[in-house]
Design a protein that fits this description.
The complex is a heterotrimer of chains A (320), B (205) and C (125). Helices cover 45% and strands 20% of the residues of chain A. Chain A has 2 domains: 140 residues, Beta-Lactamase; 159 residues, 2-Layer Sandwich (Alpha-Beta Plaits). The longest helix of chain A has 22 residues. Chain A is built from 11 helices and 12 strands. Chain B has 205 residues and is of the alpha+beta class. Chain B has a single domain, classed as 3-Layer(aba) Sandwich (Chemotaxis protein chec), CATH 3.40.1550. In chain B, strands 1, 2, 3, 4, 5, 6, 7 and 8 form an 8-stranded antiparallel sheet that branches. In chain B, a hairpin with a 5-residue loop joins β7 and β8. In chain B, α1 crosses α4 and α1 crosses α5. The two termini of chain B are 32 Å apart. Chain C is α/β, with parallel strands linked by helices and 125 residues long. Chain C has a single domain, classed as 3-Layer(aba) Sandwich (Rossmann fold), CATH 3.40.50.2300. Chain C has a 5-stranded parallel sheet, sandwiched between helices. In chain C, β1, α1 and β2 form a beta-alpha-beta unit. In chain C, α2 runs parallel beside α3. Chain C is globular and about 30 Å long. The chains are: A alpha+beta (320), B alpha+beta (205), C alpha/beta (125). The interface between A and B is medium-sized, with 17 and 20 residues.
Chain lengths: 320, 205, 125
């Protein structure tokens, strides 16, 4: 073979490879008009190269959000950097069917994409190359994993009876909020309460009735607390609620609301109707609480006080 | 110390890495400055051989208690391989959104968009700049999100690493007059270090 | 008499690279400084009629050196050689009195061009 015929053959091979490679290749000019459209793109889109050639990308593919796409592509033209998009940002750029339409679990193809600058002889970038990767399997697996991990995390964080946070996780969240309070000096308050004479409930009506009482209390807590409040089951019949951005007075009102609601409820078992009450201690964050345990102790002290003073009461911690 | 000899870099080599990084990060900062129309404050980069456990310390140094989001991207060329890690302080996103003229809601998804945009520019330019000076053209893998709104400890799982040492280049970027800061870590594999040292010695010669 | 030229950069590699980029056969008296403080001192001693100055340095950075030169009215023509190539950095050093700005990495071609442009290096050399 002569040198030029060899070069020609090499060109031909390269074109063949571009056509049959299992990755999407698109070349766009400065006006986002399609200049190259390889076999992958043709086969998945059903559009032949001559049907899209010199047509603006956004005209042929109305699914592609133009502003978003331009924001990713302009730095490629202007700053000559590569940019990347991943399926987590946007599941796909081109709406193609899943490559495995029968056994696959996603209906559309998940895609990652890269945009690379193509320099012309004068050093400026007049064209960019868009590369499309099929990442459906990775994305589906990752989403399964995230869901499974999410379930696991939920299980390890919640108390199974009440579905409130368990003590361990509640304390973690509480410590985080404690640190935030130290930094920001926002008034957050801790409410600690327990069910009065709970042991008697258990002894008289049995553990199942006791569980039902605890479940009922938890559901009142959920209905009364705000989304941002951090509610946990601290011990057997003991509960803790951290009220974010709430001072002692507002927290006491909250505790009173909770107390009245619970006092008005009757839990019915097969043979009995059970009424019960709670006692609460409230402690607002104070700069003196350098450790999170000091804050808990303060609320516990107030709770003790409420018990001492006849139960079915709310007491606010008053410093020493 | 274990049976294998620890790879080390000499003072001259460290100095050379620092200077090469300095130039590359300057090029990256220039692109970011043009993209956001700001001035990026450039510090002197830190260059060290570190062990797997020290990587955690290096990461922990990047932020104090705050939540972070991070992206990593692999690169390889001429037998030199590594990963770039961009760690963003979550407090940076609101200022970043206004500089980027980002109009959508600043939720997890919105933050991911911003994270990807900035990491494309910073990582790409930095890797390219280093490659250019060492006369290596690096291929870049696709970026992977290591985590959003997580603690820096959770970014890189400890234990079970297939490496014991890495050449780490740490760059702390800050933007003047706004609350944006991020850290770029360039980590080269242990077996790359000998090769990259060769390139550097060639420059030092 | 040989022209006193100062290279001020904290990186020994960068100093070496700068020295290598200087035109061949240029008759000069070359001094090195590792930071801004050393740099200013050398200029005071008349060792830096032409200064190649880095910006990012410990002790005193390049901006600091430019300010000192202006404050003490020292006779130095400063060419900033920097990795920080942001438009803002270029503008700042020009405002502080730098004669020219060269992007790192420096090479012989760029150095020669700047030196010729400002008449420091005559065509003959």
């Amino acid at each position: 073979m002569t040198k030029s015929s060899f070069e020609f053959a090499e060109m031909h091979w390269l074109m063949d490879v571009l056509q049959s490679i299992d990755v999407g290749l698109v070349i766009l000019d400065r006006d986002y008009k399609i200049q190259l459209w390889n076999g992958f793109m043709e086969n998945h889109s059903g559009l032949r190269p001559d049907e899209v050639h010199d047509k603006p990308l956004f005209e042929s593919f109305r699914d592609i959000p133009e502003t978003w796409f331009r924001q990713k592509a302009e730095p490629v033209f202007e700053l000559k950097t590569r940019t990347f998009t991943i399926w987590e940002q946007r599941p796909y750029l081109f709406k193609f069917k899943n490559y495995r339409p029968i056994t696959g679990r996603a209906s559309t193809m998940y895609q990652n994409s890269s945009m690379i600058p193509l320099e012309s002889i004068d050093g400026s970038v007049k064209h960019i190359c868009l590369i499309i990767y099929d990442v459906t399997d990775i994305a589906v697996n990752q989403e399964d994993l995230t869901k499974a991990n999410g379930n696991l995390a939920y299980l390890s964080q919640t108390d199974s009876l009440t579905e409130l946070f368990n003590r361990g996780f509640w304390e973690e969240e509480f410590q985080r909020e404690h640190k935030r309070c130290i930094r920001s000096h926002n008034p957050s308050s801790l409410v600690m309460f327990d069910i009065d004479h709970f042991k008697k409930v258990n002894d008289t009506y049995g553990h199942q009735a006791g569980d039902e009482v605890i479940r009922t209390v938890a559901s009142v807590v959920r209905q009364t607390a705000r989304q941002t409040d951090i509610c946990g089951r601290y011990g057997g019949e003991e509960f803790t609620i951290l009220l974010v951005d709430t001072d002692a007075a507002a927290a006491a009102q909250f505790a009173e609301r909770l107390r009245k609601k619970i006092a008005a409820i009757t839990v019915k078992t097969d043979d009995h109707e059970i009424n019960f009450t709670i006692s609460s201690g409230v402690a607002e964050f104070s700069a003196g609480f350098t450790k999170h345990t000091q804050w808990i102790e303060a609320a516990d002290k107030a709770l003790y006080h409420a018990k001492e003073n006849g139960r079915n009461k709310t007491t606010v911690y008053q410093g020493k | 110390m274990g049976a294998t000899a620890m790879t080390a870099i000499s003072e001259d080599q460290r100095d050379c890495y620092q200077e090469i990084t300095n130039v590359a990060m300057g090029q990256a900062a220039d692109r970011l400055a043009r993209l956001l129309d700001v001035y990026v404050i450039l510090p002197i980069p830190k260059v060290n051989m570190i062990s797997a456990s020290e990587l955690h310390m290096a990461l922990a140094d990047t932020t104090v208690n705050d939540d972070v989001s991070a992206v990593c991207q692999g690169f390889i060329g001429s037998g030199i391989a590594g990963e770039a890690l961009l760690v963003f302080n979550d407090a940076s996103f609101s200022d970043l959104a206004s500089l980027m003229n980002y109009k959508g809601p600043l939720d997890r998804h919105g933050e991911l968009e911003l994270l990807m945009d900035v990491s494309s520019v910073l990582i790409g330019a930095c890797i390219h700049g280093i490659g250019e000076q060492l006369e290596i053209s690096f291929n870049q893998g696709h970026p992977v999100v290591l985590g959003q709104h997580c603690h820096v400890d959770d970014l890189v799982k400890s234990g079970n690493h297939q490496w014991s040492q890495t050449l780490a280049i740490e760059i702390h970027y800050e933007i003047e007059n706004v609350n944006i800061s991020c850290d770029l870590l360039l980590l080269f594999t242990e077996d790359s270090v000998a090769k990259i040292n060769q390139q550097v010695d060639y420059l030092l010669d | 008499m040989a022209l006193p030229v100062l290279i001020c950069d904290d990186s020994s590699f960068a100093r070496k690279q700068m020295k290598r980029a200087l035109p061949d056969g240029w008759e000069i008296d070359l001094t090195f400084a590792c930071n801004g403080v050393e740099g200013v001192e050398a200029i005071r001693q008349g060792k830096g009629e032409v200064v190649f100055l880095d910006l990012t340095m410990p002790e005193m950075d390049g901006y600091g050196v430019l300010e000192m030169i202006r404050k003490e009215d020292l006779p130095a023509m400063v060419i900033v050689v920097s990795g920080d190539i942001q438009p803002d950095a270029q503008e700042r050093v020009k405002k502080l009195g730098a004669m020219a700005f060269i992007k790192k990495p420096i090479d012989k071609e760029k150095a020669t061009q700047i030196l010729t442009e400002f008449g420091i290096l005559s065509e003959a050399e």
